[in-house]
Design a protein that fits this description.
Blueprint (H helix, E strand, L loop, with lengths): L1 E5 L8 E5 L9 E10 L2 H8 L10 E2 L3 E9 L11 E4 L2 E2 L5 H4 L10 E2 L11 E5 L3 E3 L6 H21 L8 E4 L4 H12 L5 E5 L2 H9 L4 E4 L5 H8 L5 E6 L6 H6 L1 E9 L12 H5 L4 E4 L5 H12 L16 H9 L6
Parallel strand pairs: 11-12, 11-14, 12-13, 14-15, 15-16
Antiparallel strand pairs: 1-2, 1-4, 3-5, 3-9, 5-6, 6-10, 7-8
The structure holds zinc ion (ZN).
Zinc ion binds next to α2.
Length: about 325
């Protein structure tokens, strides 16, 4: 079958459109004809690789997929060949103490499609039936694929871990990416109070306002820390969403009210930085990390996607034969959502 895959780690020139073996399913799996896959920044990190990431090569890219079931393992009874399905991008064992408590994103065998195992930028994929979610006929495959990773991650961070309450003010540091465009919508759906968004271009900030942001601040035109301080009447916000890391973390902490929470699921600008601890203990701040989400989170947030109450922002739909172009667009920072 054809797949967008790489045969060794490196830069964009390692991404290929190649023939790779069609996956073989086990008794608890379904074989999917993939109709849509989505890219995430994660795909670029995986392409580069890191110490300890030991992939079977060639590696099929793409953590998000949706498609139609073409074959079922003998133990799978809750689906039929021909069913349209979305896929929870996280894999877990189902048996360990974390899985049994419903915290399957803490599973001892936790893995992500497209990161630790083959992903969905391919004609077919083998998926455990417990990862599937029936996709209603009115929901396009592209919406299901585009939503999965970013919405489950933002939902777990804001709702499950961050316990965002109605009326609380929220600051989202970053406007154009998948997780931030999800976080803005989730904050408003949860009844958040004023929602502030920091961005680097007017186009990204226009999008943020369309998604529900109340106040937008262009960080290329003003000092965003001071702007937040002024816009909140020198009080700061209850919750900051910061997935940027090194470049913004200290200012994000200073933007919090006393007792505020900083939520983080990543660090696009780098993982290591210094912090002044007085900012944290004296002001009773919490830093709350999380990664991906649970199966419960996935099902909850995808139902809201299916109902149209949350909507993934789709930059562009590109045929698989031009998958390399899609990677370049992501790499060059041209994508919105
Ligand atoms: Zn487990």
């Amino acid at each position: 079958m054809q797949a967008v895959a790489f045969f060794k780690h490196g830069d964009l020139d390692q991404i290929t459109l190649s023939d790779v073996p069609e996956p073989v399913i086990g008794p608890d799996d379904a074989l999917l004809k993939i109709k849509a896959a989505a890219l995430n920044r994660l795909d670029l990190w995986v392409l580069k690789g890191w110490p300890g990431l030991d992939l079977k090569l060639p590696h099929v890219t793409g953590s998000d997929g949706a498609g139609v079931i073409t074959k079922l393992g003998q133990n799978v009874t809750e689906y039929m060949v021909g069913d349209r399905v979305a896929v929870n991008p996280t894999l877990s064992c189902g048996n360990c103490s974390f899985c049994q408590r419903g915290q399957d994103n803490l599973c001892q065998d936790f893995a992500i499609f497209g990161e630790h195992v083959d992903g969905f930028c391919a004609e077919y994929a083998a998926v455990p039936a417990r990862n599937l979610l029936a996709l209603p006929d009115h929901v396009p495959f592209s919406s299901a694929a585009a939503a999965s990773l970013v919405f489950v991650t933002a939902w777990h961070s804001l709702i499950t871990r961050g316990r965002l309450q109605s009326g609380e003010s929220v600051l989202v540091v970053g406007a154009g990416g998948g997780i931030n465009t999800a976080a803005i919508q989730i904050a408003k759906l949860a009844g958040a109070g004023p929602t502030y968004v920091i961005g680097s271009s007017d186009a990204k900030l226009d999008l943020a306002r369309q998604l529900g942001a109340d106040v937008t601040i262009n960080r290329t035109k003003e000092n965003w820390g001071k702007a937040v301080y002024a816009a909140t009447g020198r009080r700061g916000v209850d919750v900051v969403v910061d997935n940027v890391g090194a470049d913004t973390f200290a200012t994000s902490l200073r933007s919090l009210k006393k007792g505020g929470r900083l939520l983080t699921v990543g660090n696009t600008s780098g993982p290591k930085f210094e912090l002044d601890n007085r900012l944290i203990f004296f002001r009773h701040l919490s830093i709350i990390g999380s990664s991906m989400g649970t199966t419960g989170d996935y099902r909850e947030v995808m139902e809201l996607i299916f109902d149209g109450r949350l909507q993934p922002v789709i930059d562009s739909v590109i045929p698989m034969r031009d998958g390399i172009k899609a990677f370049r667009r992501l790499h060059d920072g041209l994508t919105l959502g």
